[in-house]
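To whoever is covering the structure queue this week,

Two jobs came back overnight. Logging them here so there's a record in the thread.

Job A:
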Amino acid sequence: MRIGFLIDSFAIGGTELNAIKVAESLSRHSTTLTVFHIHENGPLRARYETLGVELLHIPLTGLVSQSARRAIARIQTDSRNRQLQLLHSHCIYTNILGIGVRRLALNGTPILASRRWTGDVPRRGLATLNRIAQSTADAVLVNSPSLVDVVRNESPWSKPVYVPNMIPEGNFRIISTAERSEKRKAVGLPPDAPIVGYVARIAPVKNHRMLLDAWRSVIARVPDARLAIIGDGGTRADLEALANEYGVSNSVHFTGGISPENMPHSLLDISVLTSLDEGFPNSLLEAMAQQVPVLSTNVGGVGDLVSHQRNGLLVNVNDVDSFASSLTGMLNGS
């Protein structure tokens, strides 16, 4: 097949990682892949280049702009010239671009849109356009059974198709105690302390503040525990200042981003997630593959992955007391 991907960026995030993993899987079959990308650079670009796929930069300054009209025309022309059989958009911005591509030609390339979250939309107008995109697309990929009904309710003419996230086989390799100690030291973590970790980009939707609110209580009860915040983002400085304000900065380690290939969850004793919104989070999947216990807020499709008190623990969003109590119990082995 000849397939085109529409992606926003090469950053490390759940949506971006899903896209590259699908691309890597397709590369093992008789597939020619063309990747239209809005942002030009990022850590995942090298993985696409390794696959030898065609990368086409589509500059975009706004969805209501001359650049958007040029981007839509360029995608349509390049799709026709390359005889692409499918265009697969991976995020809200590229879903909306896909509407324009679909409307530009009566017999254009089929569009497979994506929905991997339930409400993390920066502006109301984007949510409206995305609902139209979901109805316009030939199908909408969702990565959680819960999202099938969400998409059908907000876009009655849509055709959601459930395909779960994938993780590489190598993520199931359990490292030795000695290797784990060396990996911890390499990123500034104590080799033998109980380590709780949150692997996510640092952004408001990930709700790191809830974690730090709970951590004040946890560290008072389990003083030898350490918290690893693995990831980066625009609000990292604010989060570091909050840890200092709370007086817990000595027990909180900001490691920065650790590439998925290096299995960041292999460093941890417990993996946590405090998001306000999720689809079917890679972070919890990767933790489970490493046999690391998980504690999460019960949002989006998390409940499709974690069954409370069976393969993990769930709490309500911003229920700091329950989160702190659950985490303390896990650290104490109860």
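Job B:
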Amino acid sequence: MPRSKPCFVLVGLCVALSLSACGRKPPVATAPITLADDTRVASAPDNLQAALPNAVPGGELELPPADLDASSGNQVASNVVAADVASNAIATDVPGIDQVASDTAASAAEAKRIADEAAKAEAVKREAEAKRKADEEAAAAAKKAAEEAEKRKAEQQAAMTPRYSRVIGEGGLYGAQALCISSGSIYVVDNARTGLLGPFAAIRKYDLATGEYAKLSFENLGLLGVKNLPVGIKAVKVENTKVITTDGTTQWTFDAGANLLKSEPGSFAPPAKLTLPGKTDSIVIKDGVLQRVEADGDLVVTFGQKEVNKATALALDEAGNLYVCDAGPKARVVVFTAPKE
């Protein structure tokens, strides 16, 4: 092969390498390379392959066709330059890629923010629901505790309250002003009786256990049998089997058979309150109403409003049962059982 113009061999090699780099597989040369001076070079591919065995993958070099002239080479070179320009344009488009990456990151951050807010809202909702349930449970527990406390209070008050039992003297009394208990009998002051000469007072005796009238009335039988025990008797008591009564200025004393023994100036008052047996609490009358009070006067319970219209006097038997004079329209003695506590 002539060596006058080896530069053309190098140009062919560069074109082949450029085509291979652009992904275009040039056809295998089947004709001699045409040089600028139309000199024919025989077996150029073999010499090139021998000179550059590792120039292309596989160790094989494919040369352009024999009719490839300078203008074709220039076109290939132009294509290579265009490819390089496009590659450089892609490489220099980094700001656009960065914007896409930035937008993607922003979208991810926004999605995370929305997810975090949704999780926070859900947590707040769960917390509010838990608080609501806790408040409802606490309110229900408080209500139940209050109801139980009220129930216990009611039970305690019931245990501390004398309970209605029975009545004595209803239908046989016209008024019930005072009373006392002695030896299984109850003596009741009746200020509203009426005789031939007008109203008078009497002390009526009843059996304590049965409530039966003992057919004995303590009255002041004056001259010619006139009953002159005055109305307005305020108290009665029994001392040494003698029945004594008073109107506040004079007192009359009777024997056990209802005979008047004497009358003389004197006065005594019924007890203002009665202390319950074995307790410090007392039963009192306040404005005609029955009350149980503590030793210092604090109210424990009010009772008997349904059974007693107007309480005027009290008495207790040995068992602690309470006897109350009711001066209302139904004159009688109302009996209450002893309180449990």
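Note for Job B: The helical segments are 7-21, 44-51, 70-91, 94-160.

Please reply-all if you pick these up so we don't duplicate work.
Q.
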